[in-house]
Amino acid sequence: MPGDRRTDRMKLGTLIHPTGNHVASWLHPDAQIDAGQNFRHYVQLAQTAERGMFDAMFLADALAVRDGKAEALSRWPQYMAYFEPITLLSAIAPLTKHIGLVATTTTSYFEPYNVARKYASLDHISGGRAGWNVVTSANIAEAWNFGREQHYQHGERYDRAVEFVEVVQGLWDSWEDDAFVRDRASGRYWVPEKLHTLNHKGEHFSVRGPLNVARPPQGHPVIFQAGSSDVGKELAARFAEAVFTPQHTLEGAQAFYTDLKGRMAKYGRSPEHLKVMPGLNPVVGRTEAEAKEKHEFLQSLIHPAVGLELLSNALGNFDLSGYDLDGPLPKAVYSWTAPGGTTSFRNVLNWATTENMTIRQLYQRYAGARGQRTLIGTPRQIVDHMQDWFLNRGVDGFLIQAPYLPGGLNDFVDMVVPELQERGLLRTEYEGTTLRDNLGLPRPKNRYAA
Amino acid sequence: MRTDKMKLGTLFHPTGNHVASWLHPDSQVDAGTNFLHYVQLAQTAERGKFDVMFLADAIATRDGRREALSRWPQYMAYFEPLTLLSAIAPMTTHLGLAATATTSYNEPYNIARKFASLDHISGGRAAWNVVTSSNYSEAYNFGREAHFEHGERYDRAAEFVEVVQGLWDSWEDDAFVRDRASGRYWSPDKLHTLNHKGEHFSVRGPLNVARPPQGHPVILQAGSSETGKELAARHAEAVFTPQHTLQGAQAFYQDLKGRMPKYGRSPAHLKVLPGLNAIVGRTEAEAKEKYAELQALIHPSVGLEVLSNAIGNFDLSGYDLDGPLPDAAFHSKPNSGSTTSFSNVLSWARNENMTIRQLYQRFAGARGQRTLIGSPSQIVDDMEAWFQGYGVDGFLFHAATLPGGLEDFVNLVVPELQERGLFRTEYEGTTLRENLGLPRPVSRYAA
């Protein structure tokens, strides 16, 4: 309960964007420059995270390249060309033992049967370490790769997502855990009464089943999510077991934490069975000066074309070309009402007005981590912050987004993890062999089991 | 005399291809959920210098009587092929990795991505077996009331493959300059948007995966209908269509390769590799004994179910197993895709006066596919005759039990093939294309 001292430990995930989370990461000498095609790089990252006792590694995803000015995109390769997440994680599975393997898959441009199969298969291959980050697709251009003239509207996307997840979970229960007797003496491989046909007929999907994969070791792969809209939070409260929604302040985090967990009871779920783990962008130095230097160095690598593109994205795609970079934002921006990331929009305008920032200064502040919080400091300082948020029930842990990879992850594992462990905030050994064991989540019972 | 060498693939059905494989001590009984077993199979195949391992697939469980299906677990519960092959990739170095994926219940963008990704992960060893789905029940898992009609399925498949190949060309091979000095990661003029608008698909692109190491993953196929053969002639680089006689194989070989020039393709760039069921013993007697052991394990429910499938699902329950096929069975209609089995079974019943039990004994083991039973030299004699006779470019080996049957083949047959100069002793290269002797496709956009 709020106020009680927590005795549990933090959960940690690591988000892996190919060269790192900072917009200029690929230009850093400590980044693996060909990450988008370098399988070994990912294996090393996974093994580093495992050394650092992380619960899970996490891959974001999209089913389209970014749209935008080629001049800018060709200087910032995020979301342009990289591995498909489930094939990549499947390949990492045999080279790791404990780390959870969480992939993003959209409910908008897949079919539930295929998604159920792939995650179940990954769960078997990895001995129970699969996780599925449920998204509805943030890149609206994905629609054009799947025969649609436009992306689904917000409400319909979420309705489809809810039904999709229900179908997938139903399919994961097709075979009871003990259906496979494999009895040579009697010639019986599986027990007929322990195979169940879903027969789902809903508004968006009609799926008969059964699934042609045995019940996953975890019962169900772990469900992750990151919604912040009301509909997103309700979906999370109903299905999600870990949530990554970004947070900027402890107060905001606490409000979200309480709100989200408060919505779970009506679904028959206990609040401990959802882990809140917002993103954290750490820049770690042995001293504060060293950390600041690392950050400044990365910032100095931001190319104006890229900075402008991102700032423009944040401002609802207002075209900033032709304006003096060392001058103020054009007045027209303030009356621009095109749709965009509204939090970012408001933040940027706020900085512009209250701090009189130039365009260059604005993109410098915004572009590095696209408006997400960046924590720059020593291991102690970073852990102080993490501890504060954790003990005050703003979070159950964090999704670490290293600024450049592998350097930034190595820094975190070498310097921050020992500090967390020393303070009793993070495990020194894995609790179990499955992702559920490590996250402290219950194993779902099969809906058909007596 | 051919101077080239045979190509060999190996198909892995969980526990093996024989209908009673799981009951035999030489099989890994929990294959459907045992990942390490598959790693061992792949490594055995690699030791045996196989070109490629191959996974069949379906996106539905079999339909039929549970009494029978629960005794024959093929196509009931196993790994999804792309996840499994991706996991096998880092545990192997030279073996090709071929997955079946249907064009009927997938979207081209997702298929293009996954196979491109597997190709990168494996250093250029991915292959896609293009099917249109033979299990009609798959439709019910994807919101359809019925499977696509034959013609429409193949039209969709042809367009699907075109889109996928177009997406694989999105990035030119040298698009990624990754130049820190100038701050340029990729060259804008080397990224191409497909903008496909066709009858079945509308796909803008570009693909968000770099051009695969092989240019394009290798395309496999196994059609035997007219449309299937035309699709193969146009796109396929290896074809697995089953053959029963050398004459039939030769006719198919000529026919198929003869269709290629009009697509601007050389006949050498398609490898014909029909299935081969071989039961190997150190002697002929030992091989026959192994076969008899397996045959003795066929459960009547399973035998009846499989036989019934072969004759258009005619219900054989209630008939004396040691009596003849009922007259009514002869008027049944074959299921689509089983016309050969249908006519074979009825022909055996008529001409050889076989009982129901004898019929399922003959048919069920390998579902009517040709099975060779003998010593290594007997088996290689047969393979050599088909190869030298231009009936095949190689074979897709179906081990009756796994791992036992694969080990037998690798330990006993492969050395004999190598000794006769019919098969490689070392891999030619590190990509599947190099080993199969296939050219690397040039990007359609490259100057």
Structure, described:
The complex is a heterodimer of chains A (450) and B (447). Chain A has a ten-stranded parallel β-sheet with strand order 11-10-9-4-3-2-1-14-12-13, sandwiched between helices. Chain A is α/β, with parallel strands linked by helices and 450 residues long. Chain A is built from 14 helices and 14 strands. Chain A folds into two domains: 11-289 and 371-439, Alpha-Beta Barrel (TIM Barrel), CATH 3.20.20; 303-367, no CATH class. In chain A, 36% of the residues lie in helices and 12% in strands. Chain B starts with 6 loop residues before the first strand and ends in an 11-residue tail after the last helix. Chain B is α/β, with parallel strands linked by helices and 447 residues long. Chain B has helices at residues 35-47, 66-69, 81-88, 108-122, 150-168, 226-235, 246-258, 284-296, 300-310, 339-352, 356-364, 376-388, 404-419, 432-436, and strands spanning 7-11, 52-55, 96-102, 126-131, 196-197, 202-203, 218-221, 238-239, 271-272, 275-280, 371-374, 394-398. The model of chain B has no long low-confidence stretch (mean pLDDT 95). In chain B, β3 (96-102), α4 (108-122) and β4 (126-131) form a beta-alpha-beta unit. In chain B, strands 9-8-7-4-3-2-1-12-10-11 form a ten-stranded parallel β-sheet, with helices on both faces. Chain B has a two-stranded antiparallel ribbon with strand order 5-6. Chain B folds into two domains: 7-139 and 215-284 and 368-436, TIM Barrel (Alpha-Beta Barrel); 299-364, no CATH class. In chain B, α4 (108-122) crosses α5 (150-168), α9 packs across α11 and α12 (376-388) crosses α13 (404-419).
